[in-house]
Amino acid sequence: MENQGFFSFLGDNLQQFLGYTGFASFTTGHMVMILIGLVFLFLAITKDWEPMLLVPIGFGIIIGNIPFLEGLSVGVYEEGSVMNILYQGVRLGFYPPLIFLGIGAMTDFSALISNPKLMLIGAAAQFGIFGAYGLSLLFGFPANEAGAIGIIGGADGPTAIFLSGRLAPDLMGAIAVSAYSYMALVPVIQPPIMRLFTTKKERVIRMRPPRVVSQREKIIFPIVGFLLTAFVVPSGIPLLGMLFFGNLLKESGVTRRLAETARGPLIDIVTILIGLTVGASTQADKFLQLNSIKIFLLGALSFVIATTAGVLFVKFFNLFLKEGNKINPLIGNAGVSAVPDSARVSNNVGLEYDKKNFLLMHAMGPNVAGVIGSAVAAGILLGFLS
Amino acid sequence: MRNRLYILLLTGGLLFVGGQAVAQSQGDMRINEVLVVNTDDYEDDFGHKHGWIELFNKSRGTVDIGGCYISNDRRDLKKYRIPKGDVLTKIKPRQHVVLWADNMPLRGTFHVNFTLQETNVLYLTSSNGRDIIDSLKFPVGEGPFDVMDYEVSNKGAAVKMVGAIPRYPLENVSYGRLMDGENVGGANGWAFLTKTTPSSNNVILNSEAAAQRFKEFDPYGLIMALTAMSVVFFALLMLFIIFKNIGKAAIRSGRNRAKKAGLSSVEAAAVVSEAVPGEIYAAVATAIHLYMQEDDVHDLENTILTIHKVTRSYSPWSSKIYGLREIPRKK
């Protein structure tokens, strides 16, 4: 009798325990999402595609898609859970400005300061954002969601998270994953477009080497840059302020330790947290929807539009420049702010046609201008649509 | 001495600005709506109906109104001091608080010691008792007075007259701002409201209106693209113009410095561009390469590990004899 009681007690408990395991509420959606996470890890580890981002996001997707019974305070959307606390940086939008601080502290704006006309290429590439905005409206998204989707074309993960957190929090997971995926795919997406819109003659244009910029100019740049852009678009203050502040820490020459922390441990910590929590926020029921597929499609189109606009703008700009001052249109793609990947693409494609024409330094100009341009564009969208 | 004076002035300036900033937060409070005669309206916690005053925090930060004064007498601005230390006096951003004008201050923080029927003026004064944050003079006497309200549609909101009242005060008709905290529309932004809204927005607007309206007016995103791209180009064009000129100035000043140092024009150009010929880079790189190739500086270990004796020179700072942990001895 006692034994029977003990076994029934054990059985009940085992049954209860099985109810708590992930297997009990495992669905096809969870399996698909875990597979997506594994694909991300595979691409990051074996193909070396943006491993710093795709490893945390990929593992985050796996974390977020282990089924559990609600009420255990473990889910990313359950108030008070550890994952939820870490997720607040994404939800409230304080991780992206911290990443911008690090980007500012590691970015050398010399190429841009020595050849300021390259800034305009960074502006032209923002067409990708507004092209994708228009297409999103045609796809039936409301204006605020269209703005959040459009920012994928800025090729700037932190900006995409920042803006979608404010304009369309429900779509943030899909937008962030899409933005980071296409940033990793920059070497695949951009070269065919660059070749399509340039002639052989244009691809071998040699640009004048940039002059060496004095430290005084480098110090003035973040101060003037911030004052000007923030006064034009105050809604971009969190991103622009941190970007230029980080750069001032780097260039002032008197805050070496702060700059090293911002571009080293701080950005690493925030990258881990943002990647992991964004990944974890893409839960099957929220992510596996028709809208996510539309967002991925629009994201791809936005990259195509941005690259095309950048390349065509350089060709147009060249019409007004004297011989010897012309810009190689292969750096037009670098206006999307995927730093430094898109600049590296410019360099590699350039080297295919002229083994001695190194475009990297020139491409870094529009590349960092693209960071400023996308932050300004995000500020405009926020100002208009929030 | 002069430096100290500068530091003193700077500190004073910062403190002044800081002080202003503190004052500014209370300065964001506004008298938002008043109901003079309440017979069938909002009830207090005791189940009684009295006249009420609604204050509104128009800022995006929390404001503590503890210590502020409210009065219905210009000569006695400190008539009722809102008690400090009550958590409820911390008014969240864009939120309201209702004060009961029942002349029963012993009923709690939000019950003031006067009624609205005594006078037709109200003063909200900062905690220093001098600076008037906001004041209101509501109309009284025979009317007719227009009753205004917002007409809200999917195209936005517009102020319109919805009727008239014969006199004021009139039971259960409040006098409030048409837009919370702002002086927009109507008579200086105020109107008689037949639908009172204590502790709530005087007009409820759809927060999605901006995005929705944008889509209505710009279904293909062309206006957005044009406007936003113009702004992006403008911002970066300004940066381009400024740094183009800064660059020119830097080159000019470099040339001047070189000239003063007595360098030739070719040397001066080299100084300005600070350009180092490629041959020099090649020579330096070759030298480093050759140096690294030499046997005596290679970085391969000879696989023999030797434990060297480490000697430490004596210092009173590391001495245990003089250690800080030594117990003091009585002499």
Structure in words:
The complex is a heterodimer of chains A (386) and B (331). With 386 residues, chain A is mostly helical. Chain A has one domain (36-67, 75-385). In chain A, 71% of the residues lie in helices and 0% in strands. Chain A contains 20 helices and no strands. In chain A, helix 12 crosses helix 18 (290-318), helix 15 runs antiparallel to helix 16 (256-280) and helix 19 (341-353) packs antiparallel against helix 20. The model of chain A has no long low-confidence stretch (mean pLDDT 89). In chain B, 30% of the residues lie in helices and 22% in strands. Chain B has two domains: 26-206, no CATH class; 218-300. In chain B, helix 3 crosses helix 4 (265-273). Mean pLDDT of chain B is 78; it is low at 14-24. Chain B is an alpha+beta fold and 331 residues long. In chain B, a hairpin with a 2-residue loop joins strand 10 and strand 11. Chain B is elongated, with a radius of gyration of 37 Å.
Number of helical segments of chain A? 20
Main pleated-sheet profile of chain B:
5 strands, antiparallel
Alpha-beta content class of chain B:
alpha+beta
What is the number of beta strands of chain B? 13
- Average pLDDT reading of chain B: 78
Task: Return residue spans of chain A where pLDDT drops below 50 for at least 5 consecutive residues.
Answer: none
* pLDDT averaged over residues of chain A: 89
Q: How would you classify the quaternary structure? A: heterodimer
Shape of chain B: elongated
Radius of gyration of chain A (Å): 23 Å
**What portion of residues of chain B is helical?**
25-40%
Strand content of chain A: under 5%
Order of helices and strands of chain B: HEEEEEEEEEEEEEHHHH
Total domain modules of chain B: 2
Strand order of the largest sheet of chain B: 7-2-1-12-13
Largest sheet of chain A, if any? none
